[in-house]
Amino acid sequence: MRIEIQAKGMPALKELREHARHRLQFALGRFAHGVGTVRVHLADVNGPRGGSDKLCRIVVQMKKHSRVVIQELGQDMQQVIDRVADRVHQNVSRQLGRMHRVQRLALAMPPDAV
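^ that's the sequence the OP posted. Answer follows.
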């Protein structure tokens, strides 16, 4: 599993990158067999004007040609990263569960049924 992090206009960039990497490794570590690349995009949408403008978008490219995309907005980037990491964990788990069920069904079908 490879994690790529892009960030624009964020203070304390090094700490945010480390936080995002740590949270994603924790959230997706057990799914590393099914995850290819994780792309993280961090941005301050409104700049210095403030408000709920911290954007975190995560795109998980699965090894079986599917993709999970989650994004959140909020006021505190670390909290936004935490929420997105939790949602990514849930969605990747669901996606891999579906793929596993389909594989089991395909193996269980008699050869003449196809």
